[in-house]
Amino acid sequence: MRETGVKDRILETASRLFYDQGYNQTGINQIIDEADIARASLYHHFPSKTDLLLAYLDRTHELWFEELEIHMRPIAGARERLLALFDFRVRRQLKLKYKGCHFNKIVAEACEDPQVFDRVRAHKDRFRKYIYDLVRQTGHRHTDDDTLADTIFLLLEGGIAMGALYRSPEYTEKGRRIVASFL
Amino acid sequence: MRETGVKDRILETASRLFYDQGYNQTGINQIIDEADIARASLYHHFPSKTDLLLAYLDRTHELWFEELEIHMRPIAGARERLLALFDFRVRRQLKLKYKGCHFNKIVAEACEDPQVFDRVRAHKDRFRKYIYDLVRQTGHRHTDDDTLADTIFLLLEGGIAMGALYRSPEYTEKGRRIVASFL
DNA sequence: GTCTATAAAATGATAGAC
DNA sequence: GTCTATCATTTTATAGAC
């Protein structure tokens, strides 16, 4: 069993469990069992559970934007691309069974660790910038360039949160229709 | 020490800790210590930690709408009342130090208990209806009565979530400005 | 109803052999 | 680097005296 294989399997298993069950409800023992690795192997690669959490956030952040790029690649036109952000989120909700935003979930678990907050903020900041750039391309040259971008961002965040509660994409879809009426 | 006094003190202490630290990160022992009651007294009034959680949700729900009523009472006019919803949320964010929505936090902690989900949905349903009723009073007799209400609801939810992340009321305030431009 | 003592299991993390 | 055995805490919950 190659080292990288083991390390990856640990991180993949931990990622799945952290998202499905919650970080605090996932014990080290369960990760060891389900990844089928030795106890000491986990602590060799990740000295503490917090290190595993930070690696989870980094990995999820990377995968998130990779999937976004794949989704957005074939879509042309700033207006259509803005609406595609909602489609991207709806598709993810379906795929992930409406368990909400990976990052907001971790913040909600009352983790006070500043390293965690920094990573989550960095993730949201980057996505917000992505929206802002698209809005500018629509030709909306009003003073409220940013207001439109903020609206889209908040509707997406609200839609994901309510999707997790109602186990439904309907709020994200409502957000899409609202934005479509603006553009 | 009267029974009701003990029971109330347990629930008050648990409520504070569940919100500040998170439900899963709060142990029964800490509640017993900080409420300064006997171990068996807690289990007498609340047979399990889940019972305590359900009582917390019920209590928070009641207090939430009581505080909303107090905030809204002096405000006249449907438009002003709709905007006052944002002010109410901003004021709460300041008071509660930006720890987010009590109810969304519990859902995010990956509690699968249907009794929990039912209570959180009931809370959101009631607030959503509150918004819908106000929107109808504005005279907005468009087909998109509900769309406006949904917009307000989602902007509020997104604002609270981002408030918890950025420890700032700015996103809720942005939501207010967005809605003010509609009305 | 409240008390203390304790159970039974799970937690995150470490030691030392190989 | 991987293994097994184990530690010290902490977890939720119960028993039985008063």
Provide a descriptive summary of the structure in words:
Two copies of one chain form a homodimer. The first copy, chain A, has helices spanning 3-21, 28-35, 39-45, 49-72, 78-95, 102-108, 114-137, 145-166, 170-182. With 183 residues, chain A is mainly alpha-helical. Chain A is elongated and about 55 Å long. Chain A binds a DNA duplex (18 and 18 nucleotides) through helix 3.
Task: Describe, in short, the structure shown.
2 copies of one chain form a homodimer. Chain A is an all-alpha fold and 183 residues long.
Describe the protein's topology.
The structure is a homodimer of 183-residue chains.
Chain A: H1 3-21, H2 28-35, H3 39-45, H4 49-72, H5 78-95, H6 102-108, H7 114-137, H8 145-166, H9 170-182
Chain A binds a DNA duplex (18 and 18 nucleotides) through helix 3.
> What level of helicity do the residues of chain A show?
over 70%
Order of helices and strands of chain A: HHHHHHHHH
**Total of DSSP H or I helical runs spanning 4+ residues of chain A:** 9
Q: What class, by secondary structure content of chain A? A: mainly alpha
* Large-scale geometry of chain A: elongated
List keywords for this structure.
elongated, 183 residues, 9 helices, DNA-binding
